[in-house]
Amino acid sequence: MRSELRSERIGAAIGSLPMFRGLTPEDQRRLAGLASLKDYKRGDVLWREGEPAESLTLIVRGRVKIVRHAEGGDIILEIFGEGEPVGAIAVYNYMPYPASAICMEPVALLSLPRRDYFELLDRHPEFARAIIRELTKLVVAMARKLQEMKGQKVDVRIAQLFLTLAERMGKETKSGVEIGMTLSRQEVADLVGTTVESAI
Description:
200 residues; four-stranded antiparallel beta sheet; 8 helices
């Protein structure tokens, strides 16, 4: 009974992820047999910088921050939300994770072994296109972030951060766009590459 519930939950998770919508119901069921679904708490470390990237992981629920540890303090490179692959570049390039991944809130994460992931890419062009779209969005976002941070004042960088988050994760409401995420002052500072004092 427990394994049936687990299979149903994985199947529902796969069906909810935009990346898998191009797959046939049969392929989605096959994928559900290969994938695993795990829940994490706020603050849990999914992986640390330098660990091997063995599985493609997609966020079913919650948000994850990618953190690079440096001498001057941590730098948040990116925040990923529901439906987004996290760590995909490392998996695709057979390289260790270049930064750590930490849960910002309770997270449900779907994992697919790398071998099965590559088999899907080979067999399903629409799935490969979905992955390419997500990776392209990530590369564009990182390039834009680097460009925006160069020579900009802190208040401008913070404004650009919230505009980017609104574009990626915001929801339209009667009073404007709402970003359903709580960021600490330290996280805002880490995201724009400054100190808490400057961010305040």
